[in-house]
Every structure is written in structure tokens, then in C-alpha cells.
Specification:
By secondary structure, this protein is mostly helical. Helices cover 63% and strands 4% of the residues. The protein has 24 helices and seven strands. The protein is globular and about 95 Å long. 44% of the residues are buried. This is Dolichyl-phosphate-mannose-protein mannosyltransferase.
């Protein structure tokens, strides 16, 4: 009896193991399944299109009302604002991801959603630039339009003058139209948003052959934290990533064309790569990674033709050579600019991993205020949904690269090991999705946050493809009904909403807050900066805190400095309770003409943890005595005072001590 019982227990355990294995295989296995058919014969439903246009317009009105309420400090601001965002995102996302929708309708609604999200970003500051990086490029563009000269030094962004593509394009629009730089830049960004979405859709469609899958992949990409804000601001990456993506899309769309068409496409891609080389260093790096990876995979692929290998190799060669040639002409500022960021990020990540195994060691505080609970939960749920989509879509996306038949088991994976895949682009983007957990790990550290954020821009090309394959070929299936329609669409809506919530700490414009970049830029400080241009002239040597420094450079056209002299940071001059000793000597031997003091820096702690530079160790409010000390220094004269902001003439210190 005991032997029989043992045999039964063993069989039961074996059946349990097999059932669990089949469940796991069903979840993560490579079986594609048949997608829903009949979409090609569908026509655009103009009733849905019109209704969604009205819904998005109503949502944007609520967003505007929420921004206005936030500026007035009203409690209803959050309710109005986030209700509007939900109206913009959720209904449009549902319709785009719904089965049996015409290709043209999906594409139009993608443009509608992209336009709505761009307006959402723009209405935060509808009449002027407000982001830190936008000011840096506004200064360079304004100088180009007025002085007509490239490569002017920019102490706030050393690497900026060597990548003038955005400034050249914007200044051309200014010259042709007579519009101000802000208006011309905003129009350019609106066009770039549309081009980006169109190129992204065509890239995925060329790879997958499915408009539905491509539209869903675009929605997933909109869940990237850099989509809504970072790559839609007036900065060189906004143009660089579009040039980069256009090259990807053209290369993918031309792979099955005749020789003449492929040659023309290759020439166009080289032109785009040349423009990219002088526009943005990191986007050029993305292009290098992509085209070199495609060339390597084409060389490894057994069935690749000589034409495919040759074209891939030539494009990879130009992708590498053009940025290197440009850096050879202009020097190599990128290493000095990105090197410390990468080194600091890797060090921060290693420290965080080390702290996980040491429970007695405190983790690094981020030094930034937390978001509201609702936005943090949205972001967290979206990350979990993306992880689930990647887990259930990875092997299916590999099977798509092989062009496997439905329900073919693990044979497509074996073909990959045999180097018999059909599409190197799909294979590379699938592998690229592995960068998602790495980017998330970097974002959990102070020093590595910027690396993780920048990685997401590129990594989400792969994440979008893999998650879309998971939704179409597994979660929705060939005949989606009931929960198979609603739950995937709901998950996509959460992912897109997370792209909004993760894009900024506080998207609602409120009253002035010290040390908060965009929220610190208000009319009184702007008027003080304009006063300097009107009464002091342009080009004076100025020092100030981080925010006022930007305003002085943009509105006042002053020659702002990050350091007083080499080795003496501006923060030292402001934080010291007395201007004496080395600080006095450094200011006296510098070529600084004026300094600006904002007394509001003594009223509260900086929101982002610093007033001058991110690496400052002092995260407390400055002492009033430290800011008032300039009134008691011989040779320093107060020439402007509006109650909070004071400007001092320090040229008297330059006389021999």
C-alpha cells in the first residue's frame, strides 16, 4: 500500500509540475497566435473621430482651467487638471488600441493624442520658455539671430555651441517669418512631434506589417518618461531624436525595395546622419548603436543577401564616421560633458546595489520632493504592467523576427540560434527591451537618474514593440471580446498616463517656490532681468543663483558665469556670512561686473535641493545675513532693489586692493 501511495503521490506531483510548466509556457512562450483579421477592409469611422476630437478639446480646456486655478492657488486645480488629462488620454487610447479599427483612423488619432500631449506641455508656460535647458538653447539661438555667428561660447552649456543644428533651423524660421524665437521654436516643436509619431508608426509597421500592432507600440512609447516633456522641449535632443528615428524608419521601410530605391533611401539616411552629427551627440550615439547592431546581425544572418549586408555595413560606417569627424573638427567636448555623468551614474548604481545587501547602511536620499500618492501609484502600476508585457511578449517578439507560423512552439527560438531569422530590426529591438530594467535601476539613484532617463528614450523603441506583440498576440488574441478588449486597452491607458505623471514632479503651475527651476521663474525676476538689459546694456559679467542666472542670460542678454574664477564657485560668495579673505580676493580679481541677490532664497529650503548647482552640499535656506552682507562691503554699490531682488555693482572691487 505504501508503494502504491508513493507512486500516486509521484504521479500527482508530476502532473502538477507539468500543468505549472504548461501555464508558464502559455504565458511566456513564443506562440504568436492569429491576430484579428479584417482590419484592412475597414473604413475610417468619422463619427468616432469627431467625437474624440471634441473629447480631447474638452480635456484640454480642463487642463487650462487647472493651470489657471493652480496659479491662483485654488484647491480645485488638481481635480480640474487631472480630469482633463484623463479625458485627453483614456478615450483616445481605447479607440486606438481597439480591434477592427481602420489604419488611417488609428494614425489620425495618434496625431491627435500627440498634439494633445504637446499642448498639455506647452500650456504650462504658453508665452515664454520655462525649462532650464530651453533657456540654454534660447540664448544660443538668440545670439545666432542677432549676431549671425555660430559657435559662440556658452558657459552654461559648454557642449552646446558645438551642436548648433536646432539653432540653425530655428533661426532660419525666424528670418523667414519674422516671428520671435519662442514662437518659431514652438511651431518647430509641434511639427517635430507629428514627424516623430509618424516615423515611429512607420518604423513599427515596416517591421511588423500590422497597423494595429504599430499603433499600440506607439502608445506604449508614449508611456516613456521622456516623451511628454523631455523630448518635446526647445532643446537639441528634441530635434536629434526625430532625425535619428527618421533614419530608422526609412531604412526599415526600404529593405524590400528595388536597388535604385534602396540606394536613394541610403543617400537620404546619410544626409539625416550628417544633420544628426551636428545636432545632438546622444542621439547620434543611438544611431551608431542601432545601425552597427543591424550590420552585425545582417552579417550573422545566414539568409542575408550580399546587398543587405553591404547597405547595412555602409550605413553603420557613416553612422560612426560622421559624428567622429565632426568631433574631430570641433574638438571632443562630449567626453568631458558626458564622462562625469556616466562615471557618477555607475558609481551611484553600484553604491545602491551595495546598500541593498547592507541593512545598516542608509540609502541616498533623492533630495527632491515626492510626487502625490496618486501619480506615484500610476507610475508604479505602469511599470508593473510594462514588466508583465515584456515577460509575456519577449519570446513572441523573437518569433515575430523569425516570421514564425502561429502555434509553432519553440522552433522559432531554435532558428534564431541557427542564425535563420528573417528581420534583424525586429530581433535587435526585442533584445533592446532588456535595457528597460537597467534604466529603471539607474533611475533609483541620485547620480544615475539622468542616465536612466536618457536610456529610456532609446530603450522604449524595443519596449514598445515587445509589449505591443504581447497585447496583440497573447492578451487580445484572434477574437478579442469582453475582458480581452477592455483590460488591454485599460492597461495601455495607464501606461500612457504614467508617461504624463513621470515626466515632471509638479505639472501644475503654482505660486513661486524657491529653487524649483520652472516654478521659480515669475514676472518680478523676469522684469529685473529686463531692467539690466535696458539700463546696464548687454554683455556684462554677472553672477546669480541658478534660476536668475538663466533669466539674466535670456531676458537680459548678460554674460552670466557659473564660477567667479576658476576653482571658486558662485555658491561660496553667497553662502559666506562675510565677504572677506579668499572670497573677496576671488571676486576682486575676477571680471564680474554685477551680482544679483534674491532674498527669497532665505525664506525656504530649495525645492530641488540646491540653489546654485546640483552638486551643492548645502540644501538649507541661505542665511539673510549672508545675502545682506554686500551692503557693507567697500567698493560694492546697490543699484537696483525691488524689495526682494537686489543688484550690486562690484566693479569697484577690481581696483587694486
Amino acid at each position: 500500500m505504501s508503494t502504491i501511495s508513493a507512486d500516486n503521490a509521484a504521479r500527482t506531483e508530476a502532473r502538477t509540475f507539468r500543468s505549472r510548466f504548461r501555464l508558464i509556457e502559455t504565458l511566456i512562450g513564443p506562440d504568436l497566435g492569429e491576430p484579428a483579421k479584417g482590419e484592412a477592409s475597414r473604413s475610417i469611422n468619422f463619427g468616432w473621430v469627431s467625437a474624440l476630437c471634441l473629447v480631447v478639446a474638452a480635456g484640454l480646456l480642463l487642463v487650462v482651467a487647472g493651470q489657471g486655478a493652480g496659479r491662483r492657488g485654488e484647491g480645485a486645480a488638481s481635480l480640474l487638471f487631472w480630469s482633463g488629462v484623463i479625458l485627453v488620454v483614456v478615450p483616445t487610447t481605447f479607440r486606438i488600441s481597439w480591434p477592427m479599427v481602420a489604419r488611417g483612423e488609428r494614425l489620425f488619432l495618434l496625431f491627435l493624442l500627440a498634439g494633445g500631449l504637446f499642448y498639455y506641455k506647452s500650456v504650462y508656460a504658453p508665452t515664454s520658455f520655462s525649462d532650464h535647458d530651453e533657456f540654454l538653447h534660447w540664448i544660443a539661438t538668440d545670439y545666432l539671430t542677432t549676431a549671425g555667428r555660430l559657435f559662440a561660447s556658452n558657459p552654461l552649456l559648454d557642449v552646446g555651441p558645438d551642436y548648433p543644428g536646432l539653432q540653425i533651423l530655428t533661426s532660419a524660421i525666424v528670418e523667414m517669418t519674422g516671428l520671435p524665437v519662442f514662437v518659431a521654436g514652438t511651431l518647430l516643436l509641434a511639427v517635430l512631434r507629428c514627424v516623430f509619431v509618424g516615423a515611429l508608426f512607420l518604423l513599427f509597421e515596416s517591421i511588423t506589417g500590422s497597423a494595429r500592432l504599430s499603433a499600440i507600440a506607439c502608445l506604449v512609447y508614449m508611456g516613456c518618461s521622456t516623451y511628454v516633456q523631455f523630448t518635446s522641449k526647445f532643446s537639441y535632443e528634441s530635434l536629434g531624436i526625430v532625425l535619428c528615428l527618421l533614419g530608422f524608419a526609412i531604412e526599415a521601410a526600404s529593405r524590400n525595395r528595388d536597388d535604385v530605391s534602396r540606394l536613394r533611401a541610403a543617400v537620404l539616411i546619410v544626409v539625416l546622419l550628417a544633420g544628426l552629427a551636428v545636432t545632438h551627440h546622444l542621439s547620434a550615439t543611438y544611431a551608431i548603436i542601432y545601425f552597427v547592431a543591424i550590420a552585425i546581425l545582417e552579417v550573422l544572418r545566414r539568409d542575408a543577401s550580399r546587398r543587405d549586408v553591404t547597405i547595412a555595413a555602409v550605413l553603420a560606417l557613416f553612422a560612426v564616421a560622421l559624428p567622429l569627424a565632426w568631433m574631430g573638427v570641433r574638438g571632443n567636448p562630449v567626453v568631458n560633458y558626458l564622462g562625469p555623468v556616466i562615471e557618477g551614474g555607475l558609481e551611484a548604481l553600484l553604491q545602491r546595489l551595495d546598500s541593498l545587501s547592507d541593512t545598516t547602511r542608509p540609502t541616498d536620499p533623492l533630495g527632491i520632493p515626492p510626487q502625490p500618492l496618486g501619480t506615484r501609484l500610476t507610475t508604479l502600476v505602469a511599470v508593473l504592467l510594462l514588466a508583465l508585457g515584456l515577460a509575456t511578449g519577449f519570446f513572441r517578439s523573437l518569433a515575430l523576427a523569425v516570421k514564425a507560423a502561429p502555434s509553432s512552439g519553440w522552433k522559432p527560438i531554435a532558428k534564431i540560434f541557427e542564425r535563420r531569422w528573417r528581420d534583424s530590426r525586429s530581433l535587435f529591438l526585442t533584445v533592446l527591451a532588456f535595457g528597460f530594467p537597467i534604466a529603471m535601476a539607474f533611475r533609483l539613484t541620485v547620480g544615475g537618474w539622468e542616465i536612466g532617463n536618457r536610456m529610456g528614450t532609446f530603450v522604449f523603441f524595443g519596449v514598445g514593440l515587445v509589449v505591443a506583440v504581447s497585447l496583440v498576440h497573447f492578451w487580445q488574441g484572434p477574437a478579442p471580446r469582453g475582458w480581452r478588449r477592455v483590460l488591454p486597452a485599460s492597461a495601455l491607458a495607464v501606461i500612457v498616463m504614467a508617461g504624463v505623471t513621470a515626466s515632471s514632479l509638479n505639472p501644475i503651475r503654482g505660486p513661486y517656490r524657491a529653487g524649483a527651476d520652472s516654478e521659480s521663474m515669475e514676472p518680478m525676476a523676469i522684469q529685473a532681468a529686463r531692467w539690466t538689459r535696458e539700463w546696464l546694456g548687454v554683455g556684462n559679467g554677472f553672477i546669480a543663483d541658478r534660476v536668475n542666472r538663466l533669466l539674466l542670460a535670456g531676458y537680459g542678454q548678460q554674460d552670466v558665469r557659473v564660477d567667479v574664477v576658476d576653482g571658486v564657485a558662485t555658491a561660496r560668495i553667497y553662502e559666506a556670512e562675510q565677504l572677506e579673505g579668499d572670497n573677496l580676493y576671488a571676486l576682486a580679481r575676477s571680471d564680474i561686473d554685477f551680482l544679483l541677490v534674491d532674498m527669497r532664497l532665505s525664506q525656504s529650503r530649495p525645492v530641488f535641493g540646491f540653489y546654485f548647482e546640483p552638486w551643492d552640499s548645502n540644501r538649507e535656506a541661505l542665511l539673510p545675513e549672508a545675502l545682506l552682507k554686500f551692503d557693507n562691503v567697500d567698493g560694492v554699490v546697490r543699484i537696483y532693489d525691488n524689495g526682494w531682488i537686489r543688484i550690486y555693482d562690484v566693479r569697484g572691487l577690481h581696483e587694486p586692493l
